[in-house]
User: Fold Copper homeostasis periplasmic binding protein CopC from Brevundimonas intermedia.
Amino acid sequence: MRYFNPAPFIAVAAVVAFAAGPAAAHARLVSATPAPDSTVAATRTLTLTFSERSVPAFSGFDVVNAAEEKIAIRTSVAEDGRTLTGALARPLAAGAYRVDWRIASSDGHRMTGSYTFTVR
Assistant:
């Protein structure tokens, strides 16, 4: 009777799983200005930086006030492909705001999220 040793197969599976780990990662928000949960002076520019390059046609963000109204914003993607910048027509008034972001990374994965900040 032959004995089957699964150890080589387990080792190969572990190496494949470990190597595939970073490739399976999704884009995540790594920094933002204004920062999440911060209180800031009136601002006309918001910047979000992600962990991966984005596909500009499927990436962006909205700024929503306490009355659930979207604030008009013009967004652009920096040359690095990781930074989204939003320009407002005028500074935000005092109050609470939510940023709803969406990003599609080059591997096709779409991620969404949100955070809040306050203008004093």
Summary: The first strand starts at residue 29 and ends at 33. The longest helix spans residues 7-23. DSSP finds one helix and nine strands in the chain. The helical segments are 7-23.
